Amino acid sequence: AAFEWMKVVANNKLSYEIDWLGIPIIQTPTDLVLMQELIFKVKPDVIIEIGIAHGGSLVFYASLLELLGKGKVVGIDVEIREHNRKVLEKHPLFKRIALIEGNSLSRKVFAKAETLIPRQAKILVCLDSDHTKAHVLKELQLYQKFIKPGGYIIVFDTIASALAKFNSSDKKYLDNGPAEAVREFLKKNKSFVIDKKCDKLFISTSPNGYLKRIK
């Protein structure tokens, strides 16, 4: 039943109907609730979001960090459209946001992200850009370096390959999406496990996508 509902969400682009504090966020309400729980539990100093779209998720994370009284959100995207940048820069929570334009896998972008992270900072990483297996796997291998034990990498849209069976426009993700990248990553990296507690609401774009570092 949960997957049938996610098919309805995807086919009707319902996640595109949601704003957070005035900016489109393109997430399901259940995933937002889960992320709120995770951020309150981990209390990260820095949240890195790769793939920012309109910037709604950046503002969502920034609003939670504002309530916690600390922290910064680093948004990375291969292209930050001028309109979206201007809207974000005018937002009252932009004081907690830093933007980096460029390919998340480039050395230059990674190095720039490193300069924004204080030593010993607790980091949360959210992967939500190119959803093909190869790209997500490379992001996992690169950005896992930021995560300390007890921290998380969240791989969004792990449902993509399952939905691709029913949606011709997403065929490129058939057996070639974030879920496949997660499985490949975990085969060789025993420092991370899937946090099944984060799948408790069933309705999610990212089942088995919440990866916790245990060592």
UniProtKB/TrEMBL annotation:
<dbReference type="GO" id="GO:0071770">
    <property type="term" value="P:DIM/DIP cell wall layer assembly"/>
</dbReference>
<keyword id="KW-0489">Methyltransferase</keyword>
<dbReference type="GO" id="GO:0005886">
    <property type="term" value="C:plasma membrane"/>
</dbReference>
<dbReference type="InterPro" id="IPR007072">
    <property type="entry name" value="RNMT_CmcI"/>
</dbReference>
<dbReference type="InterPro" id="IPR029063">
    <property type="entry name" value="SAM-dependent_MTases_sf"/>
</dbReference>
<dbReference type="GO" id="GO:0008168">
    <property type="term" value="F:methyltransferase activity"/>
</dbReference>
<keyword id="KW-0808">Transferase</keyword>
<protein>
    <submittedName>
        <fullName>Cephalosporin hydroxylase</fullName>
    </submittedName>
</protein>
<dbReference type="Pfam" id="PF04989">
    <property type="entry name" value="RMNT_CmcI"/>
</dbReference>
<dbReference type="GO" id="GO:0032259">
    <property type="term" value="P:methylation"/>
</dbReference>
<dbReference type="GO" id="GO:0008610">
    <property type="term" value="P:lipid biosynthetic process"/>
</dbReference>
